[in-house]
Write a structure and sequence with these properties.
- The chain has 10 helices and 7 strands.
- The protein is an alpha+beta fold.
- The two termini are 30 Å apart.
Length: 344
């Protein structure tokens, strides 16, 4: 709002400077016709006052109303009417100011020229104001559109994040319920882990990126909970370059990917499964690779990568406006997800 007021003040200042310049040019021109400075000053003053009022009127009107494509003829009529009114005002006022008979003759002979110059001045004022206010309206519309798109994007990001939690939460609660009877200590520990995980999840904001080390710390809470559910069957390998620890990425990006890996890696098998997570810097990107074994006869990841990965693709597109940041591969019995996060 303050910036908008500053812009309008500058525009009005430019108009005032233009009016003073016009008055000075009028003063010099009348003096150049052989009249003394006093008469020239009276003429320029009397001429500029109605002309300034007409320009102010046309500018103020266009500030709140821009004519449509078929209404420009009305604007032309307005300019002609105001120019005629300015000329009539000069013709009526100047003879009462004792400017002399010679000037009265000059005034009659210059009426057409005065009308034309007044029309040109008012016309220029109308054109400049019309262009200026149309541009300002377009900027305001673009700003409102950008704000609406940002709100819609934030809402979609929030909705995507919320969709990732319920089934994990239900699975965890079911596991806690199963542990209460014969492993109450494990159940209590899992409750504390789940509480810490959900607390960290609620504090995250998609607009505030986190470091990889913070993301991995939060991911380990999730893995601890899943290891209680799956026991020794779930093994993880996490490795990253030292340069990656301070790399930035959107919060809670890895958890749905690892959850997807657990789903395809463990749900249809009874043996041990190792999920591998590797991170490294490549040029100006944080590259993260998540791998898990799968049974192609049962898991069939080629038939779909799950909502988790689709949600990640959508989140990255909303944040970076790119569709090439997530890739998936199937090689033998290993399913691989590659993610690249642009670094500022």
């Amino acid at each position: 709002m303050a910036a908008s007021l500053t812009v309008f003040k500058r525009f009005n200042l430019a108009l005032i400077i233009g009016g003073v310049t016009w008055m000075a040019a009028h003063l010099y021109l009348i003096h150049d016709f052989g009249f003394d400075w006093y008469v020239a000053a009276i003429d320029s003053t009397v001429s500029i006052v109605p002309l300034g009022a007409a320009c102010w009127l046309i500018d103020n009107n266009l500030r709140y109303y821009q004519p449509g494509k078929g209404s420009y003829i009305n604007l032309l009529i307005w300019c002609l009417t105001l120019a005629a009114a300015c000329t009539a005002a000069v013709w009526w006022i100047l003879p009462y100011l004792n400017v002399g008979d010679t000037f009265s003759v000059f005034l009659r002979q210059s009426l057409i020229l005065r009308f034309v110059t007044s029309f040109l001045a008012i016309g220029w004022m109308a054109m400049i104001s019309l262009i200026w206010y149309v541009q300002q309206d377009q900027k305001e519309n673009e700003k409102r559109k950008a704000e609406a798109e940002k709100l819609a994007r934030d809402a979609e990001l929030y909705n995507l994040r919320q969709q990732l939690q319920p089934h994990f939460l239900f699975n965890s609660l079911n596991s806690i319920n199963a542990l209460i009877g014969f492993k109450p200590d494990e159940a209590r520990r899992m409750i504390h882990q789940l509480s810490d995980f959900l607390r960290g999840t609620l504090k995250k904001d998609d607009q505030q990126q986190v470091t990889l080390s913070e993301e991995l710390q939060h991911l380990n809470l999730y893995l601890d909970i899943e290891k209680v559910r799956f026991g020794h069957r779930l093994q993880t390998e996490i490795s990253c370059d030292d340069r990656c620890n301070k790399s930035m990425l959107p919060p809670l990006l890895l958890q749905p990917i690892v959850e997807n890996a657990i789903k395809f890696g463990l749900y249809d098998t009874t043996g041990e499964v190792t999920i591998s997570i590797r991170a490294e810097m490549e040029d100006n990107y944080l590259s993260i690779m998540v791998q898990n074994p799968y049974d192609p006869q049962t898991a069939r990841p080629r038939h779909g990568t799950g909502f988790g990965i689709r949600g990640i693709q959508r989140r990255l597109y909303l944040l970076f406006a790119r569709n090439d940041l997530v890739e998936t591969f199937q090689n033998d019995d290993i399913f691989t997800i590659m993610i690249k996060i642009p670094q500022a």
